[in-house]
Amino acid sequence: MAMDLSGASPSSWRPTRRRPRPWAAWAHWRITGDPETALRVCGAAARAGLGRPVLRYLADLGPLAAPYADAVRPLLTCPGEWSRVGAAEAWWRITGDAAPAVEALLPELAPPAGHRVTPLVLRTVRALGAIGRPAAAALPVLQAVMSSRRRHGGDILRDEELFRVARKALSCIVQPVTPPGGGSPPHPGPATP
Pick from 167, 105, 163, 168: which is nearest to 138 by CA? Predict the structure, then answer.
């Protein structure tokens, strides 16, 4: 089903029988390996201002979604913290440009510094770990989390999850994974849901 959604605007873009939903287009790509529909549908949705719901699909498409990076960039500074984190993950996975992504992610590390853990904090720490060495600015907070004797919230399971993801992020930032045979780490792969 070919269609042109590139000119969609926020008020005119709505999924219909003729316009597939971004999740369906993404699923089609994952099943068939053909990214064309996913890029067209998710890119049009991002350009129409749908932001957070499609960011994970664009992130998963990685460098294939480069033509839509311009729709992601403004979301790095938007007021919604979930959208900022999603935009940072998408930006990095699409462009490989870590600096703007890290800059958008660092403010979300304030809760662990205040001994609070939220699902957004866990996602942020995972994203910083995935970025690796360019996320070195996060090291002081992550090291403080690991060395603190104080718990980071009332939920022990969430606290222990923070320690697990922080430990993994620290290892990725300090010692990035080198592919077999040497060389530099590969461009980021597909995002995990």
Answer: 105
